[in-house]
Amino acid sequence: MYDFVYQRAASVDEAVKMLAGDPEAKALAGGQTLIPVLKQRLNHPSKIVDLAKAGLSGIKVDGATVAIGAMTTHAAVAHSAEVAKAIPALAELAGLIGDDQVRHRGTIGGSIANNDPAADYPAAALALGATIRTNKRAIKADDFFQGMFATALAPDELITEVSFPVPEKAAYEKFRNPASRYAIVGVFVAKTRDGVRVAVTGAGQNGVFRHTAMEQALGSNLSADAIAGVTTPAGDLNGDIHASAEYRAHLVGVIAKRALAKLR
Q1: Is residue 188 a contact partner of residue 198, using CB atoms and an 8 Å limit?
Q2: Which CATH number fits domain 59-261: 3.30.70.2210, 2.60.40.10, 3.30.465.10, 3.40.630.30?
Q3: How far apart are CA 214 and CA 198, in angstroms?
Q4: pLDDT tier at 105 (50, 70, 90 boundaries)?
């Protein structure tokens, strides 16, 4: 690990000021990605700005929306009775992330800002049509995720809250890497007021994506039978030591059917 300046921000405005004018400065949320990267000397930030005391934690449910502060941990989401009542699939997803240690340190804002291609929250945000709020603006999930580890965030933006519309029904299922518990393939299906949305994580070469062919097939028949003939082109998927692109293509269909079977 290289030397760096450590600062703890007491507010979002203070954090933005600490990060301003220094392209090598990094914001620290839960640290589940940043700390290992620092230990391996794969990143050399000039400054780390800790957001732990910036006032970004908390969950608000108003009946139509579940709003989660960026520094809210996965464990807090998983154990929230309000989230479990409003969007059970979201609470279940949070409980499937990593292990107890990761869930008690990792945050929703950190996960979404990092946009790891095998992370779980991006699939929920995309399938539910979430809005990612920053210190400057509100960004629709469809516009936020822009490729592997790439988002619409500007250098001077911090995520402050993620707002999820409450769907009619939703479910998440994933095929987990047994060591890391990252999704080799994860599928989030949601019936929203605007129609059926299906998001896939863990498989795409460019990270999380909407499966429009499945969405069209499910529009008039929300069941596993409706996607029996829908295929996923392997050429668009990632292949690695854990699974080939062809295997992931097969898994997308299998996992989607499992998600559909437990819609609620």
Answers
A1: yes
A2: 3.30.465.10
A3: 7
A4: very high
